[in-house]
Amino acid sequence: MPILTATPAAIGDAAQHLAAGRLVAFPTETxxxxxxxxxxxxxxxxxxAAKGRPTFNPLIVHAxxxxxxxxxxxxxxxxxxxxxxxxxxxxxxxxxxxxRSRVSLLTSAGLDSIAVRVPSHxxxxxxxxxxxxxxxxxxxxxxxxVSPTSAAHVAEGLADRVAMIxxxxxxxxxxxSTVLDLTGDRPTLLRPGGTTLESLEEAIGAIDIxxxxxxxxxxxxxxxxxxYAPALPVRLNAxxxxxxxxFMGFGPVDGATLNLSPTGDLSEAAANLFAMMxxxxxxxxxAIAVAPIPNHGLGRAINDRLRRAxxxxxx
Length: 315
Ligand code: TXA
Ligand code: MG
Prior knowledge:
The protein is an alpha/beta fold. 27% of the residues lie in helices and 17% in strands. Helix 1 (8-19) packs across helix 4. The chain starts with a strand and ends in a 5-residue tail after the last helix. Magnesium ion binds at residues 138-139, 147.
């Protein structure tokens, strides 16, 4: 499994792999994605197999622009407005499946909706343009584990399961896209992420927040409780570490093993979150204690990921 710096030639090779139905890991502004042709049942099946992901958990379809999605999903006025304002960028819209959609039903887990997004990372955009197919791409980690924000993270989890890893450096946003469901009358936030709830509400008005759901009937199965889980237990809202704990700080705290952002900057904290979680997930410690993070802006996505990392593990 070669890790290749994302030169134009390497992007061209990766696009050929995708067009031929093979899997490629590539950088986006949020996290690395594990991409395959969204129209190919066998490519999408290979994604689920590589991740060890349950096939009832649908994938996001990536395109180089809204135009490429016109015959995949149905845009209403709200969707057009949000696409105009926030794409390319870390926003995923769940929209009704277009009657002529060629997206594999496996991609959307048989639902009558499809999640779509236009990433802003230049490597992702170049790859999507060159591939000429819509690309289904979950985060490039084994199911339930911490999402990858570097090519090395991808290699740790998926080493022999992809044709190529395109290395585009560290992901600048660091948490996954915000998932917004527009299939009903009221827009509903299914997953907080790299686009803030505040900025979305400014654009389209009030947004409902999806409540907790039964784990076997997930509305957005990224809502499954334990997720983003390091091997060590995680303790939230800690003001200081206890004996044997690593301490992930935020703002001007004492005794941090690593600090998400010493100045208390939420963008910096989001960009550092998954890499620092991996670095502290070390058998020298017995647990990871995490300082409190304010719950606004990107803090909402950070707290969501931290709560899942701290959730009881399936036995
Ligand atoms: O930032 C991101 O979104 C990254 C990069 C690679 O683009 N991708 C990502 O994919 O995070 P994944 O598969 O890890 O998360 C996709 C989320 C899941 O929570 C899934 O349940 C939800 O989107 N989802 C996908 N299709 C859906 C649908 N039709 N209805 C409701 N939720 C959906
Ligand atoms: Mg994921």
